[in-house]
Amino acid sequence: MILKKIRNKIDIIDAEILKLLKLRVELAKEVYKVKRALNRPLVDRQRENEILTRIREEASKIGMDPMLTLKIFKGIIRLCHESQRKLTTVSPGHKEALNREATLKTSPPQRVTLNLTTVKTSETVGEDGLLKDSEFLREAKLMVVGAGRIGKFIVKFFRGKVKEITLISRNPSKAERLAKQFNVNYSIDYSYASQANLIIMAIPPHNLAEVASRLRGFLKPGTIIVDTSSVKKGVVESVLSILPNHIEYVSIHPLFNPARIRSFKGLTVVVIPVKGERAWRLIAEVFKDAGLKVVISKPEEHDRVMSVVQVAHHLAYLAYALTAYELLNPRELHEYRTRILQYTLTVLGKLKDNLEVIKTIQELNTYGNEAKIKLLENMKQLSRISDENWTRLREALSKLS
Ligand SMILES: NC(=O)c1ccc[n+]([C@@H]2O[C@H](COP(=O)([O-])OP(=O)(O)OC[C@H]3O[C@@H](n4cnc5c(N)ncnc54)[C@H](OP(=O)(O)O)[C@@H]3O)[C@@H](O)[C@H]2O)c1
């Protein structure tokens, strides 16, 4: 009898959950319609991350398993995406964008073998009138959007490799100063995109969609668009959904802070083919020729790996910085510093110079939460000394180092 009563209550709750899910799906459809009307990107990873972070924190507070709860909510978000996809009134452009998102989401991560020997080198102008392969770079008019660290690196890197470089900045005096320094053109006008055939957007990930929208109307067929964002999933899909069909798009991630490099040799750049075979091969080849290591990847694979390489890694260092600062005064820390602490302080100095980019990666990497949770779990476990934990640790250290 008691069991039956409890089960009745569970049935009522399940029915309520179902109604609430239906309500959430309807609201997601409303969001979709508003975004479509405003021509806004369909997927907003930042918003999704915020929701998932809030859910995880609230689940922990009320004694629910945060990881399992997260899984359920990720499923709910998928359900909402699915309902948006099924909307029958989608415009052809948005339908295509949704399909591309679906393809990007469902394709299993795969490592593409880079076979640059297959790149053609002899052709110049093809039947379609577009400059081909090797000629493309030599004749390219490169537009670099953003005069920050990566923008400057791109200008330095491509100087002498392309016909003409124009640096676009929102700040005319900064643009003029840098253009003089590097002996390139400058502008504050996005309409220069109509003359360019290679455009590299070296700007923060959350501004890419807006800048892509502003460039959109000026892009001529065959133009290659490149972004340099440190986060790919969500960002690449948004940019792709905005760009016109007649362009090619490749996403890259230089795995270094360009402010501190002296030579390109030994550096790594990740190249993510998005649209057009020629674009990613050209970009991969130009970096490879300059002595950089090129890793070909996909948005999901890139972000999954970077959630460990960057998100958890940075967080561990930053949490240590706060701990040291709050427990000791800086003078004490320096007076008693060991050689290995000196190394850590050097790393912290590098992180300090790049804090905004690091914060954005912490916010936007969709795999970041899982890596952070794992890091916190391991810290908690290791703080309780046990032979089992230390055996695990020894094994990890011997495999990693
Ligand atoms: N720093 C690194 O170590 C590193 C490494 C690999 C990849 N990345 C990625 O590369 C990109 C640029 O990073 P960064 O280090 O060069 O950053 P940064 O030094 O802060 O420069 C970013 C530049 O983007 C431009 N910008 C900012 N908001 C904009 C907006 N709303 N519209 C148009 N332009 C805007 C600004 O240029 P103007 O003021 O000239 O307009 C700014 O100087 C980011 O996506 C980052 O994730 C960074």
Question: Can you put this structure into words, describing what you see?
Answer:
With 401 residues, the chain is of the alpha/beta class. It folds into 3 domains: 2-89, Chorismate Mutase Domain, subunit A; 111-297, NAD(P)-binding Rossmann-like Domain (Rossmann fold); 302-400. The chain is 60% helix and 10% strand. It is built from 16 helices and 8 strands. It has helices spanning 2-38, 45-61, 66-85, 92-106, 133-139, 149-158, 172-182, 205-216, 235-242, 277-289, 299-327, 330-335, 339-353, 355-364, 368-383, 387-400, and strands spanning 141-145, 164-168, 185-187, 198-201, 224-227, 248-254, 268-275, 293-296. An 8-stranded mixed beta sheet has the order 3-2-1-4-5-6-7-8, covered by helices on one side. The chain is globular. Mean pLDDT is 86; it is low at 88-131. The structure holds NADP nicotinamide-adenine-dinucleotide phosphate. NADP nicotinamide-adenine-dinucleotide phosphate is lined by residues 146-151, 169-171, 174, 202-205, 207, 211, 228-230, 253-254, 257, 354, 356-357.
